[in-house]
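FAQ

Q: What does a record look like?
A: Structure on top, sequence underneath. For example:
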């Protein structure tokens, strides 16, 4: 048992995520200009969960990119440091990350370990 005499409760850790939609803001698209990191044209929001970057391609083959905090999404899935392909679009994906402004990257680096374990557990006989 751990006791603390500190009367201040632990505050949840927040991260800053870029928040934009390329349908409304062309500066949201990849390649994300480095200068936009400090620009008012691409805002950031505080987030208690993960940042995300979601690319989808519509019926007219137009690319759309949305960046934000995963608390804005209504997903019933475990989010880890992974990217998942969007099955409803024509080659899109959604990626999650957990550091400040990590969803500004034009490429997400992630480990193949988590997706591989998930795939193997799905394919394993019950």
């Amino acid at each position: 048992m751990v006791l603390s005499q500190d009367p201040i409760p632990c505050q949840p850790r927040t991260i800053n995520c870029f928040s934009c939609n390329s349908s409304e803001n062309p500066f949201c698209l990849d390649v994300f200009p480095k200068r936009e990191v400090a620009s008012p044209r691409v805002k950031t929001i505080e987030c208690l969960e993960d940042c995300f970057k979601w690319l989808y391609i519509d019926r007219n083959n137009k690319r759309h990119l949305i960046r934000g905090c995963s608390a804005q999404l209504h997903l019933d899935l475990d989010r880890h440091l992974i990217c998942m392909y969007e099955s409803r679009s024509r080659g899109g994906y959604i990626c999650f990350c957990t550091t400040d402004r990590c969803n500004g990257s034009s490429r997400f680096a992630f480990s193949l370990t988590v997706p591989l374990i998930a795939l193997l557990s799905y394919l394993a006989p019950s």
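Q: Is there anything notable about this one?
A: The chain has one domain: 15-123.
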